[in-house]
Amino acid sequence: MKRDIKLHVIALVLVVIAELIGAKSFKVGPGTVVLLPMLFALIMGMLLGPKVLKIVDMDDMKRAAPWINISVMLLIAKYGTNIGPTMPLLLKSSPALILQEFGNLGTIFLSLPIAMLLGLKRETIGACFSIAREGSLAIVSDVYGLDTPEGRGVMGVYISGTLFGTIFFGIMAGLLSPVFHPFALAMACGVGSASMMAASSGSLVAIFPQYASEIQAFASASNLLTGADGVYMSIFMALPITEWLYKKFSRGKAAVKAEVGADE
Amino acid sequence: MNKKFVDMLVVLLITAVITLVGNFIGYKINPIAAIPGMLILIGIVVVGILLAEIIPVKLPSIVYISLIGIIITIPGFPGAAFFTAMVSQVQFLSLTTPVLAYAGISIGKDLDAFREVGWKIIVVSMFVFVGTFVGSAIIAQVVLKLIGQI
After folding, report:
1. CB of A103 within 8 A of CB of A236?
2. Fewer beta carbons under 10 A from the terminal one: N or C of chain B?
3. Sign of torsion, CA A158 A11 B68 A215?
4. A4 or A51, which is more confident?
5. Closest residue of A to B145, CA-based?
6. Does B39 touch chain A if contact means CB atoms closer than 8 Å?
7. What is residue B101's predicted lDDT score, i.e. its pLDDT?
């Protein structure tokens, strides 16, 4: 109990410092990088661990872990209340909202060739079929098992996402802000993770304050859709496509190798 | 009431207080003015969790929580304007900061696993994130243009 209080007080202090710093944005080329208070809180929290400041130990870290899921519920409730009032706009835009869900498959076509060029084997399949949140872990553990190459792939992306996903998404959304319309970017924020969505849509709101309510509504609606369709999309589309592309590419690679071998 | 539920409620209330402090510092919203909105959010969460327990179809509680949030703020629902106005006093960014503060505190436990992952997977992860975001943004942009929304 005493340890719990210590951790909550630490969280309060982190929040106070983070909010005092406030959102910082600066131009990078045509885009804008937005550093939100949540990122400062995250980074300060990471520094408290046994590796750096030694203020929290392993037991503390394990205690605080379930609180992430509890505190995120208030955020989810808030997102729901953003969707309700903008329902008419969302319905008008529903074709875009629904179809952009298939954009989540875009990750396969971009990341799979990279993974194979880097020399990953079947780790590629686990790593590249989705952004590897909890649902994806469950699917891979069900289909392949987590102690397989596919399992290591999905775990790797899961851990990367946990550690720097929010930072990465927050910065990426800002950098892409001159390329797409804020509504399209907002829909893209719904990747199926509340914190990644919060970071990317938060950056957008800081850049386009005039569209704050629309951005939050599109992002939360899209995130909700991804949450609902993600599992089916993964099982029936993403995983089969990834398997198929992997086979194509590895055959291609083998053919190239054989040719090189014949020349020698 | 079981212990798990009470423990959760305690963390929920603590998070709410921390959020109100952040909401005051970062967005200059008087905590007294934001309390009704925060109570509504807490109510939504609690009802959502209870529904997830009661309803036999196994869905994660966040599904119910977001649905309740949506329904009570849809224009035309009794009290929707009131709920929307009250909840708007709680800035969504001030709700994100405590979540990531807890995440930051607990994340160190994954650092060792991260070291084992290797740099290749980290590079691949970045392309995974870019791919899903840009893929959705392209489709959304094209369709929104086609239906004349932008």
Report:
1. no
2. N
3. negative
4. A4
5. A96
6. no
7. 94
* CA angle B23–A19–A134, rounded 5-degree value: 85
User: What mean pLDDT is reported for chain B?
Assistant: 92
Beta bridge pairs of residue A27: A32
Of A84, A93, A103, the CB nearest to B136: A103
What is the Cα–Cα distance from B67 to B69, expressed in whole angstroms? 5
Average pLDDT of the segment spanning A134-156: 91
Name the β-bridge partners of A31.
A28
**Alpha carbons B78 and B67: distance in angstroms, whole number:** 16
**pLDDT grade for A264, boundaries at 50, 70 and 90:** very low
User: Would you tell me how many other CB atoms lie within 10 Å of the CB of residue B57?
Assistant: 6
Do B70 and A16 make contact, defined as CB atoms within 8 angstroms? no
- Cβ pair B102:A64 closer than 8 A: yes
- Residue A51 is given by DSSP the state T
Average pLDDT estimate for A205-220: 94
Show me where the domains of chain B are located. 3-110, 118-150
- Give the DSSP per-residue string, chain B: --HHHHHHHHHHHHHHHHHHHHHHHHH---HHHHHHHHHHHHHHHHHHHHHHHHSSS---HHHHHHHHHHHHHSTTSTTHHHHHHHHTTS-HHHHHHHHHHHHHHHHGGGHHHHHHH-HHHHHHHHHHHHHHHHHHHHHHHHHHHHTT--
What does the alpha-carbon distance between residue A187 and residue A192 come to, in Å, rounded to a whole number?
11
What type of residue sits at position B15?
T
Give the pLDDT confidence of B69-122 residue by residue, as tens digits.
Answer: 999 999 999 999 999 999 999 998 999 999 999 999 988 777 777 777 788 999
Distances in Å between the Cα of B1 and the Cα atoms of A71, B9, B77, B111 are 20, 11, 31, 37
The ipTM (two decimal places) reads 0.91
The two tokens of residue B101 are 């503060």
d(CA A165, CA A171): 10
Q: Cβ contact (<8 Å) for A11 and B105?
A: yes
Per-residue pLDDT reduced to its tens digit, A173-196? 999 999 999 999 999 999 989 889
